[in-house]
Specification:
It contains 7 helices and 14 strands. The radius of gyration is 17 Å and the shape is globular. A hairpin with a 5-residue loop joins strand 8 (171-173) and strand 9. Helices cover 24% and strands 25% of the residues. The strands form 3 sheets. Strands 1, 2, 3, 4, 6, 11, 13 and 14 form an 8-stranded antiparallel β-sheet that branches. The chain has a 4-stranded antiparallel β-sheet with strand order 5-12-7-10, with no helix packed on it. Bound molecules: 2-oxoglutaric acid (AKG). 2-oxoglutaric acid binds at residues 113, 123, 128, 142, 144, 155, 209, 211, 222, 224.
Length: 254
């Protein structure tokens, strides 16, 4: 789909630490992703091998039949998601928004946030780089793809505009799954960012973001694809464990 990153997109990303790009993923691909996510969830219920490959997280770890909260590594395990992570329009946007750092575009990891109907739990406020430790910050970026319409009631993304300018703030662990800021620094106000299915929100690795519970009768599925540039100086994950998805057009070779 030919959607270009414009000067306005770049300006929003630099100012707010995130930018919405509408219409990047088409209806056929959205349908295929929804169907494949349903199949993967069923496979993970049947097979411990599949559950391990996708690092399944349940909404309630203590209840065997609890709805699934998150699947990881879809692109590594599944051809459809591998193709989606390398969608030319998405890689072009990643390239434009990480142009300060050269090298290849790598897949750091990816995660489907499933927010099942009525059970989808909140994701606490955090910066992705509290998990990823990508240095410099401009060498990483997340593309959050709305697989369903994301609304205020079903738990759309919420961002604190400009929070990427704080750099990485100290986080603490609040459960086995979540880190959240642990600092006296004023962080600012979260704002909801509802988007229609097929939109992508690109966010900086230090953009503070969260999502609330899904209180509706339908799932709010989204797929977060986390990219790193091979020109990064440091990442928590070894470079040889990341898939190469594309070449950068950035002139910098660091
Ligand atoms: O989809 C969500 O609710 C949370 C996503 C998120 O935290 C991320 O993309 O880093």
């Amino acid at each position: 789909m030919a959607v270009m990153i414009t000067a306005q997109h770049l300006e929003s990303f630099q100012r707010d630490g995130y930018v919405v790009v509408n219409g990047l993923v088409g209806a056929d691909d959205l349908l295929a992703m929804r169907m494949r996510i349903d199949e993967v969830q069923a496979e993970c219920r049947r097979s411990a091998v599949a559950a391990s490959a996708y690092s399944v997280h349940q909404e309630d770890a203590a209840v065997a039949a609890a709805p699934l909260r998150k699947l990881t590594d879809l692109a590594r395990n599944d051809p459809l998601f591998r193709r989606m992570a390398a969608l030319p329009a998405i890689l072009a946007a990643v390239d434009a928004l990480t142009a300060a750092v050269g090298g290849k575009i790598l897949l750091y990891t990816d995660q489907a946030f499933l927010k099942p109907a009525f059970h989808g739990s909140p994701k606490p406020l955090h910066q992705d780089n509290s998990y990823f430790a990508i240095q410099p910050f401009e060498a990483g970026i997340t593309c959050w793809i709305a697989i369903d319409d994301a609304t205020v009631d079903n738990g759309c993304m919420r961002y604190i505009p400009g929070s990427h300018k704080l750099g990485l703030v100290k986080h603490r662990s609040i459960s086995s799954a979540h880190l959240t800021p642990d600092t006296d620094v004023p962080l600012g106000e979260e704002i909801p960012v509802p988007v229609p299915a097929g939109s992508c929100i690109f966010h900086h690795v230090c953009a503070l973001h969260a999502s609330k519970a899904n209180t509706t009768a339908n799932p709010r599925r989204a797929w977060a694809v986390h990219y790193a540039k091979s020109g990064a100086q440091h990442c928590a994950k070894p470079f040889d464990q990341m898939l190469v998805l594309g070449a950068s057009t950035a002139s910098s070779t660091n």
